[in-house]
Write a structure and sequence with these properties.
The protein is mainly alpha-helical. The chain contains six helices and no strands. The protein has one domain. α3 packs across α4. It is globular and about 40 Å long.
């Protein structure tokens, strides 16, 4: 049962990031994705203006999301995908807590799925927080 739940979390998180990451990649390369974006609120507009001003950040994040999502779906290098998605998920969660609460439910679900995967593979990560 625990394995099936972890497998479902891995596949769902992988599909989410592969789909939305590829949409973001298409948006950064062509100017529009295959999924229409809602009009951002005033706080989000300021944040997005900063992201767009870098000329590379949105494309890089979308590429990492797509790559990590495909790794999760394939089941290969899952620890690498968990590591790469960690800072992105923290940023998504913080943006929706502090600037755009309308997306908070999805951000919480994505964070919970990521935490399920991290917990299932904690033995691989616990040395990172080990006291010397």
């Amino acid at each position: 049962m625990k394995y099936k739940f972890t497998l479902a979390a891995r596949l769902l998180l992988g599909l989410i990031f592969a789909f939305f990451g590829s949409n973001g990649l298409a948006m950064s390369l062509t100017g529009h994705g295959f999924l229409p974006m809602p009009e951002p609120g005033p706080e989000m507009m300021i944040i997005m203006t900063g992201f767009l001003a870098t000329n590379y950040l949105l494309g890089l994040v979308a590429a990492v999301q797509t790559f990590s999502g495909l790794l999760l779906v394939s089941g290969r290098y899952v620890n690498l995908a968990i590591t790469l998605l960690g800072p992105i998920i923290v940023n998504i969660l913080c943006i929706h807590i502090f600037a755009d609460p309308s997306g908070l439910p999805v951000a919480v679900v994505v964070t919970a799925l990521w935490l399920v995967l991290l917990r299932a593979r904690w033995s691989d990560f616990k040395t990172l927080v080990k006291k010397d």
